[in-house]
Amino acid sequence: MKAGRVLETAVYAADLDAAEAFYRDVLGLELISRGANRHVFFRAGDGVLLVFNPEETVIPPAPDQLPVPPHGARGPGHLCFAASGNEIDAWERRLTDAGVAIESRVDWPNGGRSIYFRDPAGNSLEFAEPRIWGV
Fold first, then answer.
1. Out of 10, 31, 80, 95, which could bridge 100 as a Cys pair, Cβ 3.0 to 4.6 Å?
2. How do strand 113-118 and strand 124-128 relate by DSSP bridges?
3. What is the pLDDT of residues 90-114, one digit of tens each?
4. Which of 57, 84, 100 is the last residue of a domain?
5. Is residue 67 part of a domain?
6. 44-63 tens-digit pLDDT
7. What is the model's pTM?
């Protein structure tokens, strides 16, 4: 047996209002749900992006809540969205128009390219052609 595709991934942000606005309004992700100041969940293609407040997710669940173990991370995380070359060009324009700085542009040695930028919490985000991983 081996693990299959990634169903969900998480980044952490203390300011959920800023994170919600960024992922919804700038990146255009569909909001699934918001849990007060604990989390915001988004549909991302056929997967789910979880944005957690690290101060809240380290608190063990109450007896009447789902038994999700405490978790969290400190410092910037990383998340990469798949995009074609043309989509990367379009995303670069959209991000720039929204005032989001492009931190880096990479032409990968095995073919494909990507762009890097930051969300309001400082997480490193990327749009990349899947062929950088042979996909």
1. 95
2. antiparallel
3. 999 999 999 999 999 999 998 999 9
4. 57
5. no
6. 999 999 999 999 999 999 99
7. 0.93
User: Domain holding 126: CATH number?
Assistant: 3.10.180.10
The answer for 37, left when phi > 0, alpha when psi is -120 to 50, beta otherwise, is alpha
pLDDT in tens, 22-44: 999 999 999 999 999 999 999 99
Is residue 68 situated within a structural domain? no
Q: How many CB atoms lie within 10 A of CB 88?
A: 20
Which region, left, alpha or beta, applies to residue 36 given φ > 0 means left and ψ of -120 to 50 means alpha? left
List, edge to edge, every strand of the sheet that includes 113-118. 78-82, 124-128, 113-118, 102-107
Residues 48 and 80 in one domain: no
| Alpha carbon separation from 28 to 21, 34, 38, 117 (Å, rounded) | 9, 16, 21, 16
Residue 28, both tokens: 């255009």
Give the helix/strand (H/E) hosting 39: strand 39-44
